[in-house]
Amino acid sequence: MTSARRTIGVILAGGTGSRVGMSIPKQLLKIAGRPVIEHTLAIFQDADAVDEIFIMMHPDHLAAADAIAAKFPKVSRVLNGGGTRNDTSFAAIAALGDDADPDTRLLFHDAVRPLLDTRIINEMVVALDSYDAVDVAIPSSDTIIEVNEADEIVDIPDRNHLRRGQTPQAFRLETLRRAYLIARQDPNFLPADDCSVILKYLPDVPITVVRGEEHNMKITQPIDVFIADKLFQIGSTVAPSPTSVEEYHELLTGKVMVVLGGSYGIGGDICDMANGFGATVCSFSRSQTGTDVSQADDIEKALADAYAEHGRIDYVVLTAGILNRGPLADVPMEEILEGIRVNYLAPVFTARFAHKYLKETGGQLVFFTSSSYTRGRADYSVYSSTKAAVVNLTQALADEWSTDGIRVNVINPERAGTPMRTKAFGKEPEGSLLSSRAVALTTIDVLLSALTGHVIDVRREEPGHVGMSRSELEASRIAEALAEVGSEADE
Description:
With about 500 residues, the protein is α/β, with parallel strands linked by helices. Helix content is about 40%, strand content about 20%. It has helices at about 35-45, 60-70, 85-95, 120-125, 175-185, 195-200, 220-235, 245-250, 265-275, 285-290, 295-310, 335-360, 380-400, 420-425, 435-445, 470-490; strands at about 5-15, 30, 35, 50-55, 75-80, 105-110, 135-140, 145, 155, 165-170, 205-210, 255-260, 280-285, 315-320, 365-370, 405-415, 455-460. The strands form four sheets. It has a seven-stranded mixed sheet with strand order 5-4-1-6-10-7-11, sandwiched between helices. It is elongated and about 80 Å long. The protein starts with 6 loop residues before the first strand and ends with a helix.
């Protein structure tokens, strides 16, 4: 950022959950394998523009907040929230003391907005170099009406000038402190958000607005829990990506990776890349090792053999899958059972036997799904339904294994150029398919990340796509760099 001033993210977590009908606060509800507030804290923890984090928690749940805060090094204080939003904000200001740098930047964010884009944080911090107050908002797609006490319309404002407010709201400390000192002397002061306090009590202070995002939603009503979970599920997540072969090598050296289905296609590329990055890779498949992933005993033996040889397993990746097409009524029963065994029972067996090894290392399990998991397709009924089940399994295990320190994610590649797809659909137009190398590199990025419970979309590069994986160009560049390293090693 352009200034050395300290920036503090203040996470407002004082709600009780009464509106979502839960016995615990909504910020502690689990979505995609983690409490909502953890998703929110992770965003601020990973934001380079943020130096420090305060958690303002409901007094009845401070112990839970303390336990969660221990996972995030930037969290410096867990404090009692107040009876209202404004009381909570003022408590954060008071906690800084009178000696705090008046130019300290404060970003107040609802704990129950776990889908915040880092872009918004960065733009707000930059805006604070020119303004003392910054809000975030999005245009209103609905017509807004004003009514009287009798629910009769009295005005329909021009929506071109209307915005829907979100958080964070960002301020220079001294400006917000001054506004609150005036507000707290007003006997008619009504609780409002922090920008409203500036607007009413320091009307000469301009408040600029940063563009928000539709997905930066607030979990308030019961349906919001479902929507937020679905937004996590559909894969708008991008895994943090190392930038060089050397960085990958540093992160993967000494790690042991088991790939089930590693003989060719995406699995083969994962093995090749991970080997090149310095990982110890154990690849199992029917053609390589006689390992049949539809058989529980074969999976158990593969994992046991890898552990016996190397003494640890850090990552387990299951890429094996089978795509049988045709109307369900016409598909032979053996093909139906084969699809269920390979596409669903194999992930269940893999999870069952990998758990004890991954618990030792705090490792990660990665599955693969298909874009058809979101909606069943004709002639793909067994395939689509098993891939949907794998997504559900991923999210359930991420929740179930969170206390064991095991991460579980699932990769959702767009149509990729793999032998399985060629067998099912024949040769397709050049450039219409995602390369298996791009999928492999994104998979490795996910393995190196702290993500859990996520569906990660991998798509061909398209302008404006939010959930973009590593580009195919970048995957090619990394692969070429690996090849050069390999050639130098052979000389």
